[in-house]
Design a protein that fits this description.
Layout (H helix, E strand, L loop, with lengths): L7 H6 L1 H4 L2 H18 L6 E4 L6 H9 L2 E6 L2 H13 L5 E4 L11 E6 L10 H14 E11 L2 H7 L3 E5 L5 E9 L4 E10 L2 E10 L3 H11 L2 E6 L14 E6 L9
Parallel strand pairs: 1-2, 1-4, 2-3, 4-5
Antiparallel strand pairs: 5-11, 6-7, 7-8, 8-9, 10-11
Helix pairs in contact: 3-4, 6-8
The chain binds S-adenosylmethionine.
S-adenosylmethionine binds next to helix 4.
Length: about 260
Amino acid sequence: MTGWYENDDFWKETIPVMFGPQAWDDAPQQAKSILERVGMEPSVQVLDLPCGVGRHSLAFAYMGCQVTGVDRTSLYLDEALRRTQEAGLNIEFVQADMREFVRPESYDLAINLFTSFGYFEDQADDMKVLANFYRSLRPGGVLVMDMMGKENLARIFRPRDWRELEDGTLVLEEREVTRNWTWMENRWILIKGGQRRDFSLSHRLYSAAELARLLELAGFEQIDFFGDLAGAPYHYSAQRLVAVARRCSVGDDLR
Ligand SMILES: C[S@@+](CC[C@H](N)C(=O)[O-])C[C@H]1O[C@@H](n2cnc3c(N)ncnc32)[C@H](O)[C@@H]1O
């Protein structure tokens, strides 16, 4: 059975919904905030997985980082490469599934942003993704994850919403929390020029405590949570669930 996230048509048709001008404008500041938060220089090696159309890969590369962007969607990788070449930057893009991609001890920083986690029916696959991140980081390396957390959602939940994009596309969203608050089901209806497209997407919901448990199982230590990428506290008004988790340095585990 293939998951909704393996539908190329979904990713193609929803580019303007997910990666509009605002999303691109936000990325450089987010990348800067991440480097400040983890206390790294803009010369580090960064794994952006999944990288999508390359918003953050480009932002990190602009700052001087060596970046590998990984994603399953070839259309997105083509777009990311086009923008990279246009900007005169040098970024490595790899087409791979996040359940498979591992490059042992190759990166100082790994990022998983914009609710790019929890897509798989079997939670063992989520675990695999975290274990891959752990293995791909050098000792002392840091993973930064950003998603819509269970606590955020409980506070702002709206079963239905609609908005209009700059190009006139109407985006209608219907949401349902299912499976005893472990799962989120979304229906997106896109209407443009009299044409209507329907898509379904869904993902596992994590609270900070649940995500911390999984990160610990994958081997991570010093796990901190924030309410956004700028470092707001993870309290009742948090906008996002941001996890910062460290792979311990050689020797730390001998203490
Ligand atoms: C919401 S987008 C976020 C992209 C990027 N992190 C950003 O902030 O712009 C989620 C991305 O996950 C990718 N994706 C979905 N399933 C995947 C998988 N199994 N392995 C690798 N990438 C996947 C999609 O192609 C898409 O680019």
